[in-house]
Amino acid sequence: MTVQFKMLKEKFLEAGFDFDGEIIEKFLKYYEMLIEKNKVMNLTAITEFDDVAVKHFIDSLLIIKLIDFNNVTKIIDIGTGAGFPGLPIKIVYPELKVVLMDSLNKRLKFLKEVIDELTLDNIELVHSRAEDLARMSQYREKFDLVVSRAVANLSTLSEYCLPFVKVGGCFVSYKSDNINEELEQSMAAIKLLGGNLREVRKVNLSNQIDRSFIIIDKKKNTLKKFPRKAGTPSSEPLK
């Protein structure tokens, strides 16, 4: 058992996650590959082992405490970047059907290497923009859970993400702690897109994470005109 293995297991336990050795080994390999690839392309500004453990791995997995994964079979991560939060969720729940979507193909090539190394299956990588992918019938309103840690206004994120959520499913946005004003300004857009705010859950972890999770239930189908054409949701957020 390596020092890093012990450190990571301890970090997970502190956060309330008691994972077996195989899962911890997968996260260690993910870390090694992330740091190695980060030398030649910009995947993350967070590189110290402790910081990656908490601010990427554990942060991605906090959703497990909020959502009943017994009711989740299909999940899509919009704007996955270096794989967060979708890939850590897949490592812990290998039986899930997971789609990781990003607009930058070189990130997806890195994720393909990680997925192959970790021997994960039933995971799809999609190079696209959310505005385009959400208009494709095989993805539109097909997911029990949509997640995003992408940095965007909540109104914009809702337009990106809610069209993927099937009625009865939910969208969870990972946001910083100070969310009240942004949330208030997004409520009309959430409703227009067929969503309904279930709750906001705030999590503070080891003084390293101040996270607000915005949990939005999908109550009715999203109108076909949403999302608007590429670029519009970010330049002209719904009000």
Count the E strands: 7
Task: State the helical fraction.
Answer: 25-40%
- What class do helices, strands and sheet pairing give? alpha/beta
Strand percentage, roughly? 15-25%
Poorly predicted ranges:
none
Helix-strand pattern? HHHEHEHEHEHEHEEH
Coarse morphology: globular
Distance between the termini: 53 Å
CATH architecture field: 3-Layer(aba) Sandwich
CATH superfamily: Vaccinia Virus protein VP39
Please give the domain count: 1
Biggest sheet, spatial arrangement of strands? 3-2-1-4-5-7-6
Mean pLDDT, nearest integer?
96
Count of DSSP-assigned helices: 9
Largest sheet: 7 strands, mixed
Which value, in Å, is the CA radius of gyration? 17 Å
CATH class: Alpha Beta
Kindly list the characteristics that best describe this protein:
7 strands; globular; Rossmann fold; seven-stranded mixed sheet; 239 residues; 23% strand; 38% helix; single chain; alpha/beta; 9 helices
Summarize the structure.
This protein is an alpha/beta fold. The protein is built from 9 helices and 7 strands; from the N terminus they run H-H-H-E-H-E-H-E-H-E-H-E-H-E-E-H.
Describe this structure as you would to a colleague.
The chain is of the alpha/beta class and 239 residues long. The chain contains nine helices and seven strands, in the order H-H-H-E-H-E-H-E-H-E-H-E-H-E-E-H. It has a seven-stranded mixed β-sheet with strand order 3-2-1-4-5-7-6, sandwiched between helices. The longest helix has 18 residues, at 21-38. It starts with a helix and ends with a helix. The relative contact order is 0.13. The mean pLDDT is 96.
